[in-house]
């Protein structure tokens, strides 16, 4: 029998790590503190619960770095991508899911796996022996966070993240709103009508901004400081940067035609995206907020079509923890001071569901191969996963290290291609073609090694 792999945290990264290792023949124990110990953001004890958005973002594997990451995970038999496809919702060119069915599906698949067991309870220390992956996410518990800080000798790094509200569909006034994806994007009618749109006139927009800026906000605790993650800014913070910021961001009116008033171009548009398969819940896209609950209902009901809306969940803000990975982790994602311990997911300094799951996939494979006596090399830097792991374990500047989504700026240039916006389609296609070839080659080599071990 092989040595057991212990995985602390059953989020995106922990679930994917467990799936990969278990499928390689390694016994896995998932330690998940929920529901015994809750967090601000989580609502259930299910694995891979989606707490912010229900979107895995773009699914374009030729022109988008996150879509390429989807492709690599699918090629590696990833559980997160399999369950996302199973519980997919129409979202134009994005991959969005029924969040409740998705997490229940992940939980069921792992619970039924013969090599996986799940133990409920909090882990508050870094063990001195065994094989471990810590994938506790940005909401790492206070006790474990203190243990990590004590071991690494550094203060925990952090940023603030925000959650968008969710609205009951039957409380939305469809005589004002309409269904349409921006630029009618999508291959089917369902995809082309995946978003619910609420239009605003200039006067309505200006009044909304005034109310947003004046609303009561959640204050941080005394002495609590951190930056916001730019990809998940609260709408009030965006509005404070300029009155037109939202109109050129999540409320941009381009690519949409209001069928109720086809000759009138909206000044701004609020979009909502379906949050479950039944279509009973919709989340307000890009409307992460730190407004207090009472203020949220007052301000959001100023949006045309939402005057009588009821909210299944209001927004909120929470502090996320991550490591200074360039100084602490090697290219195998091992803690330099305790190499029997790996870290994976958002705590390593990647940002987003997909990036977290991808780092879990790698950590699971690397740890399992080590247990099986066939250590694997890190993935090629020209793959999406390789670019990410290179960034967090050495490519980034340690002094200014901040959470990072996957993007083509992390990729090594392809010689002979034109730079700038005009050349980007050819450049992005070259990046994705090169990455797919490199990833396919790495998978083939590693799976041959695994087969030889068995």
Automatic annotation (TrEMBL):
UniProt-listed InterPro entries: FAD/NAD-bd_sf, MnmG-rel, MnmG_N, TrmFO
Tree of life domain: Bacteria
Protein name in UniProt: Methylenetetrahydrofolate--tRNA-(uracil-5-)-methyltransferase TrmFO
Record GO cellular component, one term: cytosol
Positions annotated to bind FAD: 9-14
Keyword Membrane part of the UniProt annotation: no
Enzyme Commission number, as recorded: 2.1.1.74
One of the record's GO molecular function terms: tRNA (uracil(54)-C5)-methyltransferase activity, 5,10-methylenetetrahydrofolate-dependent
Secretion signal span: none
Keyword set, alphabetical order: Cytoplasm, FAD, Flavoprotein, Methyltransferase, NAD, NADP, Transferase, tRNA processing
The UniProt record lists the keyword Flavoprotein: yes
Function comment: Catalyzes the folate-dependent formation of 5-methyl-uridine at position 54 (M-5-U54) in all tRNAs.
Any one biological process term the GO annotation gives: tRNA methylation
Co-factor(s): FAD
Family, per entry: Belongs to the MnmG family. TrmFO subfamily.
Reactions this protein catalyses: uridine(54) in tRNA + (6R)-5,10-methylene-5,6,7,8-tetrahydrofolate + NADH + H(+) = 5-methyluridine(54) in tRNA + (6S)-5,6,7,8-tetrahydrofolate + NAD(+); uridine(54) in tRNA + (6R)-5,10-methylene-5,6,7,8-tetrahydrofolate + NADPH + H(+) = 5-methyluridine(54) in tRNA + (6S)-5,6,7,8-tetrahydrofolate + NADP(+)
